[in-house]
Structures are given as structure tokens and as C-alpha cells.
Amino acid sequence: MSIAVYPGSFDPVTYGHLDIIERSAKVFDKLIVAVLVNSEKKPLFTTEEKIKMIQEGIKHLDNVEVASFSGLLVDFARQRNANVSVRGLRAVTDFEYEIQIAQTNRQLNKNLDTMFFTTSMEYSYVSSTIVKEIASYGGDVSTMVTPFVEKCLRDKFARQEA
Questions:
Q1: Whole-angstrom distance between the N-terminal and C-terminal Cα of the chain?
Q2: Which single residue of 16, 61, 111, 152 has CA 20 to 30 Å from 54?
């Protein structure tokens, strides 16, 4: 059975992320979307909220699960018997960073390969950072995130203003 892991912060999950998940799910028997818990970052959403948003967007995919992890990806992948890390690339600048991470992961775990998926053109400009910025000013992010995520963003920013 081929098992892959798609790690990220997903703060929040975007249509670009979901595109990579959908396409990866067709390639692997099982895909684990792994939400990184990073104590160094101050995310907008809690890990539980991120997991719920992702689950809402992938509920039609039977071979995809969502989990959280902290620490090294190579350790998480080993624990889950995953032999491939999935990464999305929007631009050349993403590749420069991602190839370094892929080579480091391969050095740490010889059984973990990285498969890169180029982002579909219609999502190449989308990032969680951009989505949060636009949403924080009440802008329209409906072409970048699911209606469920859009509602979560509105609710989160409304609570912050209160």
C-alpha cells in the first residue's frame, strides 16, 4: 500500500491546498494531511480548527485522513508508514526552498521521498497569508477558500474585533 503525507500549517486551508490533496489522493492508496503544530508560530486558527476545516473540504475523499504532528516530518512519516512526502509548488521560489527540505528529509530518512505537485494555474497566486490579509479587512476570499473556511475566517475576525 502506498502511503503519502502532505504536511503543512494550513492556516487556513485554501483551494490550492485542496487541489493538491485531490490530485495526490488519486496517486496514493492513502494520503495523510498532516497539520504541523509549531510552537514558534502564532497561527490564526487552532490545530483543531484547522483539522475541522480540512475535513470539511475533503469529506468526499475516502482515502484521505487528517492528523496533527509536531517535531520532525521524517519521524511522523515513519510512525505512519508513509514513504512519500507531498509538496505543492506555486513558483520557482517555492522550489528552491522545498528542494532543500526534501534533500534534508531524505538524508534523515532514506525511505522518505518527496513528490512535488505544481499548483493549478487558477490557484498559483493563493496563499494562506494572502487569504488572512484580505479576510482581515473584510475582503472577498470566496475564490480562494471554501464557503466553510470563509465563514470560519469571518467569525474569527469578528471575534477579534469584539
A1: 49
A2: 111
